[in-house]
Amino acid sequence: MTKKIIAVDVDEVLFPFIPEFTKYFNAIHGTSISQNDFVTYEFEKILGIPQDEVIKHMYGFTDAGHVGVEPLAEAQSAIATLSQSYELIVVTARNPRQADATNEWLDEFFPGAFSRKHFVGYSPVMINPVTKASVCQAHGSFALIDDSMTNLRECSAAGLQGVLFGNYSWNEAVELPPGITRCRDWSEVVTHFFDIADIEDANKRSNETECLFEDLIREFKDEGSL
Ligand SMILES: [Mg+2]
């Protein structure tokens, strides 16, 4: 049976980007920026430097590799559990030039878990920017797990489902768009997708029962019993 496809973001969903990037940035600049300072995911505002410099630092950070960086809590077991019932793909806003370090890290902690990996790139610096929603649609994914409301709003508008991951200061939202559910951690994500599978199974069983009844009624009618 073909598995349904779920797209998974990398940074702040699998990989603790801000905690690790700020360590790197602080070491270079002698600053003491922490995750608590990130009330928005617009790094240039938090770091007080232009966007092109932010991008250079991000490339420098990934070029240094991710040795010793552990995934977010429960991510490994949750991905292993979900991959039994779903096909998982990576859809990240990391740039294709960050692919080597990212793949190396994903292969270390999530070996064989993702059938494909798409490096969409950070849209303001891409020549031909694409949305994660369009990548999900192009690759048959019905849902995206991501910490960015922007990405999930675009998924919702495209008729896709999504999980807004984490209770982060940059993704606070009173109302979520249609088809989007907030999950605070990976155990909630697993429960969410298995609830969807249960509902779909129940609907399938109910449809099968309905078809069976329709067949029986047709047979009785053919025999003249009805
Ligand atoms: Mg992210």
Secondary structure tally, helices = 8
Instruction: State the CATH class of the largest domain.
Output: Alpha Beta
Backbone shape: elongated
The main pleated sheet reads as: 6 strands, parallel
Classify the secondary structure makeup into a structural class. Answer: alpha/beta
Give the termini separation. Answer: 38 Å
Oligomer: single chain
* Ions, cofactors and other bound molecules: magnesium ion
Number of strands: 6
Helices and strands, in order, run as EHHHHEHEHEHEEH
What does this structure look like?
It is a single chain. The chain has a six-stranded parallel sheet. It folds into two domains: 4-15 and 72-185, HAD superfamily/HAD-like (Rossmann fold, 3-Layer(aba) Sandwich), CATH 3.40.50.1000; 17-63. By secondary structure, it is of the alpha/beta class. Helix 4 packs parallel to helix 8 and helix 6 crosses helix 7 (149-157). Helix 5 links the parallel strand 2 (86-92) and strand 3. The mean pLDDT is 92. It has helices at 17-29, 43-47, 51-63, 75-85, 99-109, 132-138, 149-157, 186-223; strands at 4-8, 86-92, 114-119, 141-146, 161-165, 180-183. Bound molecules: magnesium ion. Magnesium ion (MG) binds next to loops.
